[in-house]
Specification:
elongated; mainly alpha; 79 residues; 3 helices; 65% helix
Length: 79
């Protein structure tokens, strides 16, 4: 038995006319394509937000590590 799908809600979208025509000419299911694209966009936004949060939360540790590394390993040619 296939898994139950989430309820759908009708939505109006404004799309590039040429892209819409091309998609229809190839039989692309617009609802499925829009949902797949939206899922990818949300996944990217979530990943970026998590990365930003991690960087902000770890900024002091990263700065401290950089200072330590700069002191432990002098720049090339400084030896």
């Amino acid at each position: 038995m296939p898994p139950q799908s989430m309820p759908r809600r009708p939505t109006d979208l404004s799309l590039d006319q040429a892209l819409l025509h091309e998609a229809r000419s190839f039989g692309v299911n617009l609802s499925q394509a829009a949902e797949a694209g939206l899922r990818r966009a949300v996944a990217v936004a979530v990943a970026e937000a998590k990365a930003d949060t991690w960087l902000r939360e770890n900024a002091k540790a990263l700065a401290s590590s950089k200072i330590w590394a700069d002191q432990a390993w002098p720049a090339s040619g400084a030896i």
